[in-house]
Amino acid sequence: MNHLDSRFSIGSCAAAKLFRSRGSSLVATQSRLESTGARQQGFSLIELLMVVAIILTIAAIAIPRMMQAVQNARVARAIGDIHTLESDVLSYQISNGSLPATNSLISVGRGDLLDPWGSPYVFVNYADPTSKGLIRKDKFLKPMNGEYDLYSIGPDHLTKPSITHKNSYDDVIRADDGAFVDLAANY
Hints:
The chain has about 190 residues and is an alpha+beta fold.
């Protein structure tokens, strides 16, 4: 065995002794850290619950506001549709000398137009004999328009001739011969 080989074997024995002594101290250090409450990587259950609680609080605030914004957008679309239908009915009246028949928006080219809640718009011609009982009335039970009614029955799909009835509050109506177009509850 030459000089280099003996040094290597002595060195490897010394390294093994050093590793054994240091290895046991590393295990002791890790054991001490765990017993003193030193943190390891990751999130605790409390931290995760806090994050979930914050997210749910934000959602509880945001979702109703978002739903109200969607509802307001649908009402705005219905108001715009009613203004468009008014123009179409006026064009029909000028061209034909009379208003279309009750519930006959097909004759003005808008028979397939649905309100934002999926129902057809209601058109009631006061001069039409079939319109009896369909004419919308205000809180004094007087007709709201001079020649015809045009309205959406709203999200509940229920309506009554009197706009003060609870089934009519969410209807988007045309009143005062087109000067007012909005929710019946706002009239």
